[in-house]
Amino acid sequence: MLRELVAAELAVAVQPEVAAFAAEIAGRFGAAARAVLFYGSCLREARLDGLMLDFYLIVSDYDAAYGGDWQARANRLVPPNVYQATHGGLRAKFAVLSSADFARLCSAATRNPSVWARFAQPSRLAWESDEAARDAAIAAVSGAAPALLAAAAPMLPASLTVDALWTGAFALTFAAELRSEKVGRGIGIVASDPDRYRAFTSPALQAAGIDAQVNGDQVRIDAALDRAHAPAAWVRRRREGKLLSAARLAKAAFTFDGGLDYLAWKIERHAGVPVPVKPWQRRWPLIGGLVLLPRLLARGAVR
User: Fold this and answer.
1) 13, 88, 116, 138: most buried by Cβ count inside 10 Å?
2) pTM across the whole model
3) Measured between alpha carbons, how far is 60 from 75 in angstroms, rounded to an integer?
4) Which structural domains are found in the chain, ordered by start?
5) pLDDT band at 257 (very low <50, low <70, confident <90, very high)
């Protein structure tokens, strides 16, 4: 049931300009490109102008994608690599993952929520190389919502609404990354498509191995979850997740042109905190980012 829901969601057509952008990104990586997934705020808000689109590019493996240079090693060590692109008057950032890493990071096999939290949300398969690539994407994304709920359910009340289940789960994942979004961001994500989350609730809980009763908007979790150890597990996720986020930002200084300006724009858009970027910080983005980060944390611009 969950796989069918995911397959139907991924198959929904994207705007022609999004499809063209996805194909252009895939074309940069030649035969290594397997699929391009579109997700994020542009998908939720159904608008493109003035925003930065979000894509994940799935490749067969990193050596094939990069020809074995340092970027392959960086992507393997701290996945994903993130890049900026422009096409047809639109801007995007795209993350690169191998098929194996995408499947692993979308599943409960990994503790870090970065990927499974994103793909527990709606996404679209904007480009695929062939039927096998499409099937692999469906299988990987089908693991994301169960991974989210399996991790979050022990931290949430046994009886709650569908909206509270998903917003509570997303709130936990936001706290496990360096994020610029305001508190309550998960509410807006669920509110953007409440029917979708209602449809996903029972199948995702079942796939997560959680015994639950879903009656309309009410969820009753019957399973004896490991609530005693869950808080410590989420403390570990938050500690590791913020360190991993910092490592990814540092790596992006070498792969993402104009990364500091994008970061400043995103923080101001989501947190309402202006972030001036000095010319020297643009010339030396890694050092500039390290200088900015403590100030942003102190001002509550990132958490």
Assistant:
1) 116
2) 0.84
3) 13
4) 2-143 (3.30.460.10), 146-230 (no CATH), 232-298 (no CATH)
5) low
